[in-house]
Amino acid sequence: MAVVAVLLGQESRSQGWPDLDARAYALVALAHLPVALRGRRPLAVFAVVQAAVIVYVTLGYWPVVCTFGAMLALYTVASVRPVRTALACAACMTGVWAYAGVVSHTPSMASVLGQALLYCSVLVWFGHLARRSAELTRRLRAEQAERARRAVAEERGRIAREMHDVVAHHMSVISVQAGLARFVFDSDPATARGALGTIAGTSGEALEELRRMLRVLREEDPEAPERAPMPTLARLGDLLDRVRSGGLPVHLAVAGIERPLPPGVELCAYRVVQEALTNTLKHAGPAHARVELRYGAHELTVRVTDDGKGTISARVPAGGGHGLIGMRERAKLYGGTIRVGPRPEGGFEVLLALPTSAAGRGRTGSPEAER
Q: Is 42 strand, coil or helix?
């Protein structure tokens, strides 16, 4: 704006005004360059710019040259300050324009006042709209962040209750085996040793579940209904049958040697498959789905894909829905990784990798797996 004002000032003589000298150029710079700081000190910048304009006009130079900075300063005040403050600044700017008309002895004073009122009104109005838009945007972001926080807290609460069920199961097994070992300790040492081995393995799994549960914060809900036994991968067939009855053809493929896994890992895998197929039913339209389970030496890989045609971008919200939040929280809780998104050939894919041993968890903690 300062450059444009200097170029415009060079036409002063052709418009019937004196040429700009060094003093005039200094005032032109003072009326425009401070606008760069308007975001930090809008009122101070407005006052400096208006003061420079008043001095510039008083010395008899062409007033139009120093109008750009003042208008932008007024808009900025209106966009960050209350309407009352903006109106006061608009009245000040209108007075400066009227003063310029009086000093220059303009024959069309009514036109000068009309332009001043028009420009000031438009600048204040658009500044006010920008201020309201910024406030609504901040409020919307705060509400979205609060909803996401509540969704994460609720999902963690559900996970915590499920972990409680797993730990209770382990403790029951340990209690039964400990009673058996004590009962047959003298009469059947082999059976007692087997019971103690079972206790050792079960207690190790229980300690791992306890460590995971300590990472989850939730408030106890005494009025929560009793929960059914947690599903495992052995019940995955029932889930697929329900999905098929809902109209979605699903194919199940298993690679590797099937074996029992820690209950929490199986629950995580089951829930992710359930959520992925539920999203396919809701959003994919006419489609076919495929569920793949790959049992590795230290890792379980779950891949759920579909060939839906109608929901590529719309199904991946920027912040993620509650279902996506739940899947990510479950994967994080068990030291796994998850990738959710559209496939290049069309459709959608959910890829979950869960460690099933300490060695697998060590590899999952690598920077590459955390992406």
A: helix
Percentage with pLDDT > 90 across the chain: 22
Tell me how far CA of residue 185 lies from CA of 116, 180, 308, in angstroms.
101, 8, 61
> Residue 255: is it exposed, middle or buried by C-beta count within 10 angstroms (0-12/13-18/19+)?
exposed
- Which tens digit of pLDDT belongs to each residue from 206-228? 777 677 666 655 444 445 444 44
| Sequence-ordered list of residues with C-beta below 8 angstroms from that of 320, at least 6 positions apart, any chain | 148, 328
Q: How far apart are CA 135 and CA 225, in angstroms?
A: 41
Contact 348, 280 (CB under 8 A): yes
Q: Please state, in angstroms and rounded to a whole number, the distance separating the CA atoms of residues 44 and 22.
A: 25
The alpha-helical segments, DSSP class H, found in the chain are 2-9, 22-32, 42-58, 68-80, 83-103, 109-184, 189-214, 236-245, 263-283, 322-333, 358-364
* Whole-number Å distance between alpha carbons of 3 and 9: 10
What 3-state class would DSSP assign to 125?
A: helix
322-333 and 263-283 helices cross at what angle (nearest 10)?
Answer: 160
Q: List the structure tokens of 291.
A: 């569920």
Q: Which two tokens stand for residue 164?
A: 């409680």
Share of the chain above pLDDT 70, in %: 81
Question: DSSP secondary structure string, 217-229?
Answer: -----TTPPPPPP
pLDDT, tens digit, 9 for 90 and up, residues 22-48: 888 899 999 999 999 988 899 999 999
What does the radius of gyration of the chain's CA atoms come to, in whole angstroms? 36
Q: Which of 39-53, 155-169, 255-269, 355-369 has the highest mean pLDDT?
A: 39-53
Distance CA 2, CA 195 (A): 88
Q: ∠ at Cα 247 (280, 315), nearest 5°?
A: 15
Query: CA-CA distance, 327 to 313, in Å (whole number)?
Result: 19
CB-based contact 93:51 (threshold 8 Å): no
